[in-house]
Amino acid sequence: MRKSGGVMSFKDDQIARLAESGWARCASVAEAVAQAGLPAVTPDYLATAFPGELWAAAERAVLALRGHFASARFADETTYGILLVPDPGKLDTRRPTAAAVRADQLGSPANDVFDERLPAGVLGVRNGTPWTMVATVTGAYGPSLGSHNQIVDGPAAAFTVDGVDTRTLMIRQLWGARVLQGGPELPDCESNQRWTFTLFPGEGLTEGLAESGTVLKGRVRFRLGKPDRGIGSARVAPAIAVT
What we know:
Elements: H1 10-19, H2 22-25, H3 27-35, H4 43-49, H5 52-68, E1 80-86, H6 103-106, E2 113-114, E3 131-137, H7 148-153, E4 160-161, E5 164-165, H8 172-182, E6 197-199, E7 210-216, E8 219-225, E9 234-235, E10 240-242
Parallel strand pairs: 2-8, 6-9
Antiparallel strand pairs: 1-3, 3-10, 4-5, 6-7, 7-8
């Protein structure tokens, strides 16, 4: 992929964004990456770790997601791009993160609020690969597609993009990675222009309650709530793994 007419290519744009993301530029998050033994997220690493055909597939997936969900509520404020998900054997984003890791995200160390009733969580990205590219929501807000129940019970065609049911990766692991990648620019945060929470329909119910994630009162929160709550603040992140 090359620059054309002075316009940055998708690959170059995403590499620039990822190299400036929380993984690399938020000191406490970058330290967690190093301590986990993961490769540093640099332009050179991103350009060599992922071959050209993967970047081409990533661009197709991002464009397909954007087009498929263009008529969704709040689609105009949704940004799609590449999320990097770390090897869960080294950095498991399904679980609470140490308070020190949040220091440069929240302004001071803060323990995550994690409902202890939550199970281990779905592994959409498995052990063995340092970083996996996922095409998904990378901005502050995802689209609103209804409640957990409405999404789970909805027709597959409404959520299937390029033959992939995007509900499968609407999971805690990806949201945890998205929060870290955001650095100090946190998704679903009360300090944003609007407060939201992201539903995880790819996770099963726990005691009849649905999982979601948000950043509220200075804490990253992994929560359980009513599965029929479909208010405008309830968002999702359709996703396609790029492998």
